[in-house]
Amino acid sequence: MRSVRREHAACDALRTFLRDLHESRFGRVLPRQEEAELVLKLKARPGEDWALSFHPSLGEQLTAQLDDWQAGRNVYREGRAYCFRCDTSECEHARPASPLEVFKEYAPNGMPEWHELAQALLAAGDDRVDRLYREGGGIVAMFQPGRLLRSRQLSSFGRSSRTYAILAQVAAGFFQMARGATGETAPRLAVSFQAVEGRGAQGELLLRLNLVAGTDPVELREQLASGWQPALYRAWKTAAQEIERLERLAREAAQGGTAESMSEILRRVPGVMRRLAESLERGGRQEARRTHHVERRRQEQRPVHKALEDVRAVAAGMAFEDEKAGTTVACGPQSRAHAFNRDGRHVTSFVLRPQAIDLRLRTRRWRVLTPEEVAEFKRRVEQYVPDQKDIAPPLS
Ligand SMILES: [Zn+2]
Fold first, then answer.
1. If DSSP codes are grouped into helix, strand and coil, which group holds residue 87?
2. pLDDT by residue (tens digit) across 66-94?
3. Ligand 1: distance of its center to the CA of 136 in Å?
């Protein structure tokens, strides 16, 4: 009877040691395995009252094996939120169902919930929702602390997990995509920027800035990196570098190498995310202005190209001198007329009916250019070199 009791006590001591070891390393979320084998190596010395020794130590042996269990889990995955209910980032709950959706919160059972960005703003009483669908409304970016995202989540479903914890989120949108996964043009995309704390295969701290969206994560990163929206790219990059730096500091802190403790360093993560939200919005405004600027320049430049074409092909008797205005006017097909100054710079383009040309000639406001004058006019237009002030500033 005594031996059974002792066996039970030894087993129980080992059990609690193992349980606490795992929790200190990976938090309260249990490993995925229902059952796994552990092998222990120990030596006994009968002559020394059966002294037991472990080489490596008991803790080291168990830790190494627990790490192996953990290594295969792939808890953190780019472009996905972890689902505690299914214990994976691969299930259908781990990403939004639509490009307009952002991460809402964890359900009590640890399952990620999603909702449309507009809904997220409404739920938070954020009046920027009006800007979402307005032309030139820019980017709306809302900061959310991690505790808000797991306020309904139960402890037994990962609420206090250190293996995977969203420390803070910025729900932002809409980003105009170059193309959609399904081929539609320029779809709107909402993105959940998540600062995630995780654990690596050896139990080491991981800090990541994850981009979770209803599109292929690789494609999204490639599009960001391709200079698609430079200001937004810079905002994202800056935050990612900050998070990386905090990861380094937190790891040093875990080894006692810094004055600040690890949890003090992790408390700096929300600040990084708040700044990300601000710079996304600022970047969005810049992009909106830039797009507007490019669009306006395109519209301004279109007649210039057309004007040049029409000058080159101008028919005999269809180029005129306007003495009073000091311009030369070339008339092209479809009632197009283009005025140039003496230097050959394009001044303006307008529509002019043939009767209007006749009227200007009859009233001697216009004079038909001689073939020599036409040749000289064409030469000046072709050779016109714009002044510095006429050159568009480089797009930044
Ligand atoms: Zn799931």
1. coil
2. 877 766 566 888 899 999 998 888 899 99
3. 37
